[in-house]
Amino acid sequence: MGPDLVLDLPQVFVHWESLTQAVRRDGLAALGRPQQIRDAASAKLFSITSGNFIAYEDTTVVPSLVQAASGVILELGPGPGNQIHRYDTALVKHVHGIEPNPHFKDAIDAKLDKYNLRDRYKVIVCGIEDSDVLREEGITEGSLDAVLCIQVLCAVKDPKNVMKEVWKLLKPGGKFIFWEHGWSRNRLTTVAQACWNPAWSIFVGCDLTRNVLADILNSGEWENPREVQEPEEPFSLLPRIQGVLVKKA
Question: Which of 239, 234, 222, 229 has its CA nearest to residue 64?
């Protein structure tokens, strides 16, 4: 999430609109399916703001990180497909887009047609923990050259488990390419993160208070753990960690 993206009224309105649409369609039974309402709202919100995210990420290391992905790639949580235009198509053999929210599929499909990746990018509606579904797509232990993870671990249910699955699926020498955010190292900022987190996690859909770096490094053995970068952002609620880790052979 970009540092200029804050909880505001449009986000509340999108969630309210998704709720009222679900109730009109399914009646009060819709209230028993909050995750479906949240998924629809999140997809609409992030599709609307996709251009802003792309513009912000263009000012960061994200474009060069995406271009480091090659071979058979798994993209975790592509959302509306903000990274699709950044792939170096000369290096891409195939991309598996693992996206548990089905409401993003139309936005992704439109970008695949635009950037000539239709035959090399497939959206799979599941989580990385759904091993049976992945196996049917040929995604098995040690089968991936790279996993791309841009602003995803803040939003998954269990980042520790996700990272253990990532490590298993990578080939020895495979790359985990990431740009994430988590706990600040500044104590005053961590207090602010803790105060913001309840509302932020409901309406934006991610967590400000995770030790994402530990979850990544503790998932398995990496050849270059000291190369992870943590830019100095002492007063940011979204301090970044980034890098290209290589799975130890």
Answer: 229
Helix (H, G, I), strand (E, B) or coil at 88: coil
Tokens of 88: 């170096």
| CB within 8 Å of 14: residues ≥ 6 apart | 41, 44, 45, 48
Half-sphere exposure of 247 (CA within 13 A, CB side): 24
DSSP 32: G
Instruction: State pLDDT tens for residues 64-101.
Output: 999 999 999 999 999 999 999 999 999 999 999 999 99
Token pair recorded at residue 96: 């598996």
Rounded to 5°, angle at Cα 182 from 181 and 183: 145
* Domain residue limits, the chain: 10-49, 60-247
Q: Which CATH number is correct for 60-247, 3.40.50.150, 3.40.50.720, 3.40.50.620, 1.25.40.10?
A: 3.40.50.150
pTM for the model: 0.85
Compute CA 38 distance to the chain's CA centroid, rounded to the nearest angstrom.
Answer: 16
